[in-house]
């Protein structure tokens, strides 16, 4: 199946999504659940609620137990950077975070921690995003990230520009972490997805902007403790005026989810999906190519096994 059919199978207008009875959608429907012998590199789900899409995606990936071991100390790292309610999509959807936490505990995780180094006031971000309440209700511990004392210096020997960084102790001390960004436009990096979400685990982000944002984003992703999963929330996306958006007119309801261990590949697929709403050439998102050069993953997604699901 031509991968373009999957990305163009939905017509995106304003703040709503409607399925179009097109050749592309018909082809998609015919091949959604085809069985393949090769391992799945990316799961792409469209059309469901956040928790429903993740349940289906993680099942296709082999279950959460494949990534989270019994007794593990786990970090779930959403984007909680902005004092925005969920409908404005500046942050990761709290329903998705709830389900990921539940799946971690079901796999036998000893503890699950949630945090982000926010841009707006952290107390307001945690509360108004709905993530603090959702995470605690699912049994996770929510910790702050607004003081330098929470961070530990780590070496980045593979970095081109960044050779070290201070990373939050929750990440440094955990056994496994799950990277859960929201797909959105970004005024500086052009796109904010999985690689950009790393900026929420570091203390000093000013150096990123002053030393070359696109390279620094790739450099921080060379940190030795990689996420066991990258889960891209594309339920709602900020198409303009990102990364926080100005109003509901910047938001499109797209009902998508992308899951992969390959951070470059999943961000490439997510960027192509975003381009169905607003044109975003891959070469405008320089940290993708920079990440590929650093062997963090591949942009050549046509060679990957992508499982496509329409709910």
Structural commentary:
By secondary structure, the protein is of the alpha/beta class. It folds into 2 domains: 1-37; 38-310, LarA, N-terminal domain (Rossmann fold). It has 11 helices and 14 strands. It has helices spanning 3-7, 23-31, 50-60, 94-106, 122-128, 131-137, 169-173, 206-210, 213-220, 263-274, 286-293; strands at 10-13, 16-19, 42-46, 73-78, 111-114, 141-142, 151-155, 164-168, 176-180, 182-186, 190-192, 229-238, 251-260, 306-310. Strands 3, 4, 5, 6, 9, 10, 11, 12, 13 and 14 form a 10-stranded mixed beta sheet that branches. Strands 1-2 form a two-stranded antiparallel ribbon. A two-stranded antiparallel ribbon has the order 7-8. Strand 10 (182-186) and strand 11 (190-192) form a beta hairpin. Helix 3 (50-60) runs parallel beside helix 4, helix 4 (94-106) packs parallel to helix 6 and helix 9 packs across helix 11 (286-293). The longest helix has 13 residues, at 94-106. It is globular.
């Amino acid at each position: 199946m031509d991968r373009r059919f999957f990305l163009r199978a939905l017509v995106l207008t304003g703040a709503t999504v409607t399925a179009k009875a097109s050749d592309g959608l018909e082809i998609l429907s015919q091949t959604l659940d085809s069985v393949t012998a090769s391992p799945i590199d990316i799961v792409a789900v469209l059309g469901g609620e956040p928790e429903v899409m993740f349940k289906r995606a993680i099942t296709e990936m082999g279950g959460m137990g494949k990534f989270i071991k019994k007794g593990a100390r786990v970090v779930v790292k959403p984007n909680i950077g902005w004092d925005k309610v969920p409908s404005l999509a500046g942050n990761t959807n709290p329903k998705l975070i709830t389900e990921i936490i539940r799946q971690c505990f079901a796999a036998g995780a000893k503890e699950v921690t949630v945090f982000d180094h926010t841009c707006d006031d952290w107390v307001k971000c945690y509360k108004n995003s709905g993530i603090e309440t959702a995470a605690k209700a699912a049994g996770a511990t929510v910790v702050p990230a607004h003081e330098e004392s929470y961070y530990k210096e780590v070496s980045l020997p593979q970095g081109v520009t960044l050779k070290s960084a201070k990373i939050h102790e929750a990440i440094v001390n955990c056994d496994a972490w799950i990277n859960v960004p929201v797909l959105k436009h970004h005024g500086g990096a052009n796109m904010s997805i999985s690689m950009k979400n790393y900026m929420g685990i570091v203390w000093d982000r000013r150096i990123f902007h002053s030393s070359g944002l696109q390279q620094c984003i790739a450099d921080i992703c060379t940190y030795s403790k990689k996420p066991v999963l990258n889960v891209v929330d594309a339920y709602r996306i900020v198409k303009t005026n990102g990364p926080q958006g100005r109003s509901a007119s910047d938001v499109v309801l797209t009902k998508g989810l992308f899951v992969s261990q390959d951070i470059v590949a999943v961000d490439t697929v997510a960027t192509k999906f975003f381009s169905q709403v607003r044109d975003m050439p891959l070469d405008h998102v320089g940290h993708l190519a920079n990440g590929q050069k650093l062997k963090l993953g591949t942009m050549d997604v046509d060679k990957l096994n992508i499982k496509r699901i329409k709910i």
